[in-house]
């Protein structure tokens, strides 16, 4: 099935991606507790404005399942939910896609986020039609772990700005610079 976004960008969905250790697939009902935790865990939300209130989490979870571009990341070995990677295929009206991600703290430091984000960026550059010219990601300037992850998958710093009362940085990659 193909899904057309608001700006005539075609996104193949539902789709699943596989890496050596991970499966990335659409969010399902059984994933809701782990995904909800990604919005309420203080460590996860340290550079994202802090934990989200319970009422807001309930609101966000309505209609969150099976939404094109929301990939839940699960372990191939035991099916444990590790995190979430989201791609917005037309974040600026069509010429670029934006990727964001969050992982549960107990799964940090194992390379899962790098593996998952790299797979989604590659998918976005190859499968979204028309292909975005670039994929971007924004993180707080102070978030060294996230910045290192983005650099490790071949993204380069292209902008810095202040948003949400904190210095932010934007990274970008295009098809020609994408690392395998």
3D structure, described in words:
With 180 residues, the chain is of the alpha+beta class. The chain has a single domain (2-129), classed as Aminopeptidase (3-Layer(aba) Sandwich), CATH 3.40.630. It is built from four helices and ten strands. The strands form two sheets. The protein has an eight-stranded mixed sheet, with helices on both faces. A hairpin with a 2-residue loop joins strand 9 (156-163) and strand 10 (166-173). The two termini are 27 Å apart. The mean pLDDT is 89.
Keywords:
180 residues; Aminopeptidase; two-stranded antiparallel ribbon; 4 helices; 23% helix
What is the structural class?
alpha+beta
Biggest β-sheet: strands ordered side by side in the sheet: 3-4-5-6-7-8-10-9
Strand content: 25-35%
Domains, number: 1
Total DSSP helices: 4
> What do the pLDDT scores average to?
89
**CATH superfamily, please?**
Gcn5-related N-acetyltransferase (GNAT)
How large is the radius of gyration? 15 Å
Query: So what's the CATH class?
Result: Alpha Beta
The largest pleated sheet is described as: 8 strands, mixed
* Tally of strands: 10
Proper CATH architecture: 3-Layer(aba) Sandwich
Helix residue percentage = 10-25%
Query: Element order, helices and strands?
Result: EEEEHHEEEHEHEE
CATH topology annotation: Aminopeptidase
Q: What is the 3D form?
A: globular
Given as residue ranges, the uncertain stretches (5+ residues, pLDDT < 50) are: none
In short:
With 180 residues, the protein is α+β, with helices and mostly antiparallel strands. It has helices at residues 32-40, 54-61, 112-127, 144-152, and strands at 2-4, 10-12, 17-18, 22-26, 70-75, 81-88, 96-103, 134-140, 156-163, 166-173. The strands form two sheets. Strands 3-4-5-6-7-8-10-9 form an eight-stranded mixed β-sheet, sandwiched between helices.
